[in-house]
């Protein structure tokens, strides 16, 4: 059996190296650059407009007002929160720390670069998602890469079967990733962090199986059972219940984390300037802590920044578009602008806060590029940084805060990915069959709590990355359409021209959404 698992790990490592290697990252960032250029740097040239139409309109009923019970769609703000629920996760804490530990402070700069271009990749995905969406048999909007691959790319002459095959592959990769990164991996992190921050020897001393670091205790099982019940109550209620929970938890957890981070950064305000100088300086001239030539070191820093940036905001993977497509929105570009805002919040705001906490708190030596001895690594590094300020007596409140933050981040990621998996399953097997997927997804929560190996996480990480290949092929192939839809919107809404709107590829859908309220 051990030989079998070793073979799986070997094959997975090879595929993972390709997916998240130079080919995948060049395709990912290259698509973002392409869409940025083709849309004439929309994220910059129309920054005032997209800010006004997203966060600036959040208190408008047409944006945040709840839809009626008979209406299966969700509000634009709910779709954003559900998308952020899936993207703002462990990667924003452990991922940023890992990027800095491996690639140095300069990796943060390349995370910003990936996010800047990723804004337009996410924008393009959402525009296509809304343009090609349709309603399922339950009257709920269904959209995503599988639809614009099948009905968009597949509609091009000679690409019918290519579009269909890529659509099925994307749905399969999404389905498999939903059980790993979207479920078991997140739950495993929840259990590990709760056990570490909140000690209950009476429960953790009862060993169910395993030994050493791979020990599973009664405490693990009980935490898993609680998470399972909570996930079940929400997921089985459908997208509207997931969205209702997400719109309450996501703003709370993001604001709370940012406030906590600002306190630490404020206490260490004298190190802020040094931190930014270090980020920009080591982005192009890394500290040679690991040996190797300058070219090699720069490539490591860039790869870490791009990879962790993508892990954080998921721009290019085609995942969040599946929930954005559920929004009760009229204009494809309107939801595209929410995609820009999503990447901005996830990486430019939350990830930057995490990076500055690490760099200013003294847990990381910016001179040597090494973690201070005894401060841990990855997620524990952020906890140690919070403990430098939030420690009272012998109580490390900072570590507890991070444990709670990771719990909320990971828990909402599970909720978001349950919807992605549901939509992928629906595409493959039909609407009625999705209840079976939801039940199985909830049951798999317990597997995450009882896992003693990282195999499931590593494999799902690969499937997560594989999602971007068919998705980005679709985005590039339909880039001309994205430009036309964007120009149509700009001409009508910004320049005031009287031209026919481009709202959907389907006439009957366009007729229906024409009745939706404008933002």
Any overview of this molecule?
With 519 residues, the protein is mainly alpha-helical. 70% of the residues lie in helices and 3% in strands. It is built from 24 helices and eight strands. It has helices at residues 2-19, 22-38, 42-45, 47-53, 61-64, 76-87, 94-103, 106-131, 145-150, 160-197, 201-204, 218-235, 239-267, 272-284, 294-313, 321-324, 332-360, 379-387, 397-429, 434-450, 455-466, 468-477, 479-494, 507-513, and strands at residues 134-135, 141-142, 207-209, 216-217, 364-365, 370-371, 391-392, 395-396. The strands form four sheets. Strands 1-2 form a two-stranded antiparallel sheet. Strand 5 (364-365) and strand 6 (370-371) form a beta hairpin. It starts with a helix and ends in a 6-residue tail after the last helix.
List the SSEs and their pairings:
Elements: H1 2-19, H2 22-38, H3 42-45, H4 47-53, H5 61-64, H6 76-87, H7 94-103, H8 106-131, E1 134-135, E2 141-142, H9 145-150, H10 160-197, H11 201-204, E3 207-209, E4 216-217, H12 218-235, H13 239-267, H14 272-284, H15 294-313, H16 321-324, H17 332-360, E5 364-365, E6 370-371, H18 379-387, E7 391-392, E8 395-396, H19 397-429, H20 434-450, H21 455-466, H22 468-477, H23 479-494, H24 507-513
Helix pairs in contact: 1-21, 2-8, 2-22, 6-13, 6-17, 6-19, 7-15, 7-18, 8-14, 8-15, 8-17, 10-12, 10-19, 10-20, 10-21, 10-22, 12-19, 12-20, 13-17, 13-19, 18-19, 19-20
